[in-house]
Every structure is written in structure tokens, then in C-alpha cells.
Design a protein that fits this description.
Distance between the termini: 112 Å
Radius of gyration: 38 Å
Number of helices: 21
Number of strands: 19
Shape: elongated
Helix content: 40-55%
Structural class: alpha+beta
Length: 629
């Protein structure tokens, strides 16, 4: 019995360790972006929904410290899976968190489980529309703008609107017949100047709706006309020396200019819609699904699909839409997609180009991209072989190669006005530096600053030696430089009869242009592509390696030059002195006894005399004698 209990505890601890490892891996690949995170237990049940300005930092904070709250400690122990939705702003994260909590009622969310929702501004569907704040959306043809994260923002906007445009606040039925019959009389608001009296026919319907159109622009974030009127009003008040009132108007202008009304995650105009987007590479496709209900995002899911053949994005997206809609039992009749797909007559597909619909499609695509990046990071940690295969396949495609560039070599020259010319060759294997294969070259046949000739010499020497030693040749050579350096490297390959057997390209630093032999038009890769990042890493590593060698050579030459000019002091003696004293300054200040113990009394005497001669005016005695004569 005791042994059985021990065994159960052991198994439970193993599973807990595995779950912790999985969560740690998920946290390590989270993005540093605003969004909403969702915690799930081992049964796939949603435990908690939270918002974050930085997803990675916020989620990590749950696991990096001991929680003071007992409920939070229990929550953390139960977490086995973390999902997230990336959004553009922290405000969007707040709104999305509210939507998801109201929809799914997670056990560990308490604060937002009530029915309270965020405020909207309503333009009522009436002959003379009222404009007022509300937390309830009624489908009667009225227009709703928002939502807003603060009621203060709503009241500020309404105050601004009322200050600009006289609007009615009563709830009378202002039909044309009742107004003509004189059923209503103006109220106190009319006498205060807040209403123009449409109830008595003192305010035309046309003029009223012109003001409503201006108000629509304000709540949409288009303040151009209203700001112009405000600024005119402020100037008039200032001209009349009403500075306090002018300052109040200026504060309203500042609020308007800094105000943002649009939210991507909640939009009353988009109702019961499924949104799909796809991102793919050589081996996998990633399809993101956003489900909108009553204008709010209530679900996000990304599906990873392994490619078996050369399926197109259209084919994969079509299959994924059917699979995801069945899985989540979606009955939406309208779908937003990045391109046309055939889904039957019962479902309406729309390809948004502009506006709110395009913004929600872009949000879906952003989440697919982030999911793809996270999978790459996780694969790099858990399955390095898969990561390498994917990178190599992508490089082959991007660089238009005949085979995967498993072995890449990159060359760079380094000199200062032709002095101490050197070159470096760095080697990457399977996308990673292979430092044991790095090679340094002293330029032997070129005089002066001639990068082209130096490149020709180094490439020839490198591959002549590999051929003689029967070493494997690279699949790709990268030359740090433009067309000139590439042409020089090609001359060496021609001499060795390797043209066409090894792919070769040049990379120019300024615009990151990739040049190919006999092609005047350079290739431009996406600045965020992994292929370009690896090429840049190769180029930077070759530059670093070459510069380090060049500095070392220049420094050594500077050290050796003065000592080697002393008669009777050879190269071996210089090496012995520098090994012992480390610098010329220490040698110059050392005593005769110290020096003689290293190189003997005879050479020590010559060295001491040399430094004594140099002490006065920096010239030897003989030179000073000649000057006196």
C-alpha cells in the first residue's frame, strides 16, 4: 500500500515537472507586445483571462516570484497551457479582456464578471437625433461609437460637442405633424442657449443634420472642421480679452487633438463574423481565426498545418476554414479573408481593402505571424534539427539556389589606406558559425589599397588549397562588397574552373543589396526575413574577424618597429623582451640588471644606450652631434 502511494506521488511529480517545462517553454517565446493572455488547466478549461502592456513580462511575473495571494498560488499550480491574442494598444487589450471574461466567465476572474460593459456614445435614430452616453446597445438603427475605457472621456467629448452644436436633450417625439400642431414649447435649455428649439420649429431639420454629421466626424476622430471652429472661437475670446474662457476652449482643443476613438477589438458595425488569415513558409502554414459576436472579439485560435505537397495558400486556407468552423461550431454567414476562397453559396466571403474590416483582418494576420515566430523559437529549443531544415529550405528558396546552403563561406578585406592589408574568411555550417574553420589571410601579392585585387587573391588561395587537400567545398560563397568585389572573386573561380559549381553572391552594405553574377538587377530581401539576417550575421562576423586580425597585426608591427631598428637586436630578442616586460615603455624604464637577465649583458647594453640616446629631444647622440656641427 505504501509502495503504491509512493508510486502515485512519483508519477504525479513527473507529470507536474513536464507541465512546468512546457509552461516555461511557452513563456520564453511570448512576444513583448500588448495583448490578452489566457490560462488553461490540464483538461483544457479556461482558468483566467488577463491583459498586459507587455505579454512576456506580465506572464513571467506569475512564475518568477512567490505569490502572496493564496488564490493566485493555486491558479499558477493549475496552469498547463498559455494562449494569447496580440493587439495594437493597451486600450485594445483592456477591451478584449472585458469581452472574453464576459463571454467565458473564467473561475479566477472576479472583477469583470458582472454585466457592466464599457460606455458608448449613441446617436439616436430619430428625426432630430439625440446624442448621449450609454452602456447598452439597442438594435433600432441608432449609431454607436466607442467603446471608451473611461466615462470621463465620454463626458469630455459630449461637453465639447454641446459647446459647439446646440442639440436637444428632451425625449419628445418631434414629428413634423406634432411640431406644426404646436404641441411642444421650448424649455429652459433653449433660454440657456444649449438648444435651438426644434420642438417649436425654430431649428430646421437640414441644419440639425448638418451638425449631426459634424458630430459623427468628431466621435470618429476626424476633428478638422470642429478644431477650426474651436480655434476661431478661442481667438475671438482672446481678442475680447476673455482669457479664462479662451483657456478653457484651448484645453478642449488639446483633449480633442490627443484623443483616439477607434478600437480594433470592438466595433458595433461588425457583427457575427469569422475572420481568417494565413502565413506560410516552405514546410508549414499558420491560419489564424478570430470570431466576432455582436461587434466584439470572443475567440482567437491559430492552426498549424504541415505541408505535404506544394499546396497553395488558397487551398490550405479553404481546408482550414472548414476544419476550424466545424471544431468551434461556428454558424456565421459572413467571413473576412485575405483573398477569395470558394466556400459554397451559403457563406458570404469578403476581402477587406480599407477601414475597420481591413483593420480586423490585419489583427488576425498579426496574430498568425506572432504564432509562427513563437513556434520557430520553440522548435529551435526543443527540435534544433527541424529548425535547421526549415532555415536551409527557406534560404534555398529566397536566394534561388539549386541546393540548400549547408556550408557557407563569407570573405571580407581589411586595411587602412593600404597598410597591413589582411582578409578574413568565416564559415557557417547549418546556419551556425563554425569557428574552427575560420581563416585569416595576409595579402601577399597586392601593393596599396586595392580591395578588388585583394579579394581575387584571397578567394583563389582559399579554394586552391581546399582542392589540393580534397576538402569539401561550400554550397554558397558570400562576398562583402558590391559588383566590383564579386567580379574579382569570380575571376579566381574561373581560374580554378569552379564557376557554376559553387553559388556566389555579393552583399552591398548601404541598401543590403544582393548581387548575382551576370545580373545587373540586385535582389532585395525582406528586412525581417531570416535569410537576410543570416547573411548579415555572416557579413558582420567576417568584418569583426578581419578587423580584429588587422588591429592585431598593426599593433604588433607598431611595437616591433622601434626595437627592431636597434643594431644587434633581432626578432627573437624582441619577442623575448615583450614576453617578459609586456610593453616598450616598461623595457625603456627597466634597469640594466633586469634586461640582462632576459637577453644577456651585451644586448642589454645596446638597448640601454638606445633608450638613453632617445631621452634627449627624442634623437640619438650622433644626430644631435651632426646638428651642432
Amino acid at each position: 500500500m505504501i509502495q503504491e502511494k509512493f508510486l502515485k506521488n512519483k508519477i504525479a511529480s513527473i507529470f507536474e515537472a513536464m507541465a512546468n517545462a512546457s509552461v516555461t517553454l511557452q513563456i520564453s517565446t511570448l512576444p513583448d507586445s500588448p495583448g490578452v493572455y489566457q490560462y488553461y488547466d490540464k483538461d483544457g478549461k479556461l482558468l483566467y483571462v488577463g491583459k498586459a502592456k507587455n505579454l512576456k513580462k506580465r506572464v513571467s511575473s506569475y512564475f518568477n516570484k512567490t505569490q502572496d495571494n493564496g488564490k493566485t498560488r493555486i491558479l499558477v499550480k493549475k496552469i498547463t497551457n498559455i494562449k494569447h491574442i496580440v493587439v495594437k494598444t493597451e486600450t485594445d487589450a483592456l477591451l478584449l479582456e472585458n469581452n472574453l471574461i464576459k463571454k467565458y466567465q473564467p473561475r479566477y476572474n472576479v472583477m469583470l464578471k458582472d454585466d457592466k460593459s464599457y460606455p458608448w456614445i449613441c446617436i439616436k435614430n430619430e428625426r432630430f437625433p439625440r446624442v448621449f452616453p450609454t452602456r447598452r446597445m439597442i438594435k433600432d438603427g441608432s449609431e454607436y461609437y466607442g467603446p471608451y475605457t473611461s466615462m470621463k472621456t465620454v463626458h469630455t467629448l459630449l461637453d465639447l460637442i454641446k459647446g459647439l452644436y446646440p442639440l436637444r436633450t428632451c425625449n419628445y417625439d418631434l414629428s413634423e405633424e406634432k411640431i406644426r400642431a404646436g404641441k411642444y414649447k421650448v424649455c429652459l435649455e433653449f433660454h440657456l442657449g444649449n438648444c435651438a428649439g426644434p420642438c417649436e420649429g425654430l431649428y430646421s431639420e437640414k441644419e440639425y443634420h448638418e451638425n449631426i454629421e459634424a458630430i459623427r466626424n468628431i466621435v470618429k476622430g476626424n476633428f478638422k472642421d470642429s478644431l477650426h471652429k474651436f480655434k476661431s472661437q478661442m481667438k475671438d475670446l482672446a481678442a475680447d480679452l476673455k482669457f479664462e474662457q479662451a483657456q478653457r476652449v484651448k484645453e478642449k482643443i488639446d483633449i480633442l487633438e490627443n484623443y483616439q476613438s477607434k478600437s480594433t477589438v470592438v466595433n458595433s458595425k461588425i457583427n457575427n463574423v469569422d475572420v481568417f488569415s494565413i502565413i506560410s513558409d516552405e514546410s508549414y502554414a499558420y491560419v489564424n481565426f478570430l470570431q466576432l459576436s455582436h461587434g466584439a472579439i470572443i475567440r482567437s485560435h491559430t492552426l498549424e498545418i504541415k505541408k505535404k505537397l506544394d499546396e497553395t495558400d488558397e487551398e490550405l486556407l479553404q481546408l482550414a476554414i472548414v476544419e476550424i468552423r466545424q471544431r468551434f461550431n461556428s454558424l456565421s454567414k459572413e467571413i473576412y479573408v485575405p483573398f477569395e476562397v470558394e466556400l459554397g453559396e451559403d457563406i458570404k466571403t469578403h476581402v477587406p481593402k480599407l477601414g475597420d474590416k481591413k483593420a480586423i483582418l490585419d489583427l488576425s494576420e498579426r496574430n498568425a505571424k506572432y504564432y509562427r515566430m513563437e513556434r520557430f523559437k520553440q522548435a529551435k529549443i526543443v527540435d534544433p534539427d527541424r529548425h535547421e531544415k526549415r532555415i536551409m529550405a527557406q534560404m534555398k528558396k529566397d536566394l534561388r539556389l539549386n541546393e540548400e546552403p549547408r556550408h557557407i563561406e563569407c570573405f571580407d578585406n581589411s586595411n587602412i589606406q593600404g597598410t597591413n592589408p589582411v582578409a578574413a574568411c568565416v564559415v557557417f555550417k547549418n546556419g551556425k558559425p563554425s569557428k574552427k574553420d575560420y581563416r585569416k589571410f595576409n595579402i601577399k601579392t597586392v601593393e596599396g589599397p586595392d580591395d578588388f585585387a585583394s579579394m581575387e587573391e584571397v578567394v583563389y588561395r582559399r579554394y586552391k588549397r581546399l582542392l589540393e587537400e580534397e576538402q569539401p567545398l561550400p554550397q554558397l560563397i558570400i562576398i562583402d562588397g558590391g559588383k566590383g568585389q564579386l567580379s574579382s572573386a569570380l575571376k579566381s573561380l574561373d581560374k580554378l574552373e569552379l564557376r557554376g559549381k559553387i553559388a556566389i553572391i555579393g552583399i552591398a552594405k548601404r541598401l543590403e543589396e544582393l548581387f548575382y553574377p551576370n545580373d545587373p538587377i540586385p535582389l532585395y530581401l525582406d528586412k525581417k526575413s531570416e535569410t537576410l539576417k543570416i547573411i548579415q550575421q555572416l557579413r558582420n562576423e567576417a568584418h569583426r574577424f578581419g578587423i580584429t586580425f588587422h588591429r592585431s597585426k598593426r599593433s604588433k608591427q607598431a611595437l616591433n618597429t622601434e626595437l627592431e631598428t636597434i643594431p644587434g637586436i633581432g626578432e627573437k630578442t624582441v619577442v623575448e623582451l615583450l614576453k617578459h616586460f609586456k610593453s616598450i615603455k616598461r623595457i625603456a624604464s627597466a634597469s640594466f640588471e633586469d634586461i640582462s637577465t632576459v637577453i644577456g649583458s651585451s644586448r642589454a647594453k645596446k638597448l640601454i644606450e638606445h633608450f638613453q640616446n632617445m631621452k634627449s629631444d627624442g634623437k640619438p647622440k650622433e644626430e644631435r652631434k651632426d646638428n651642432k656641427e
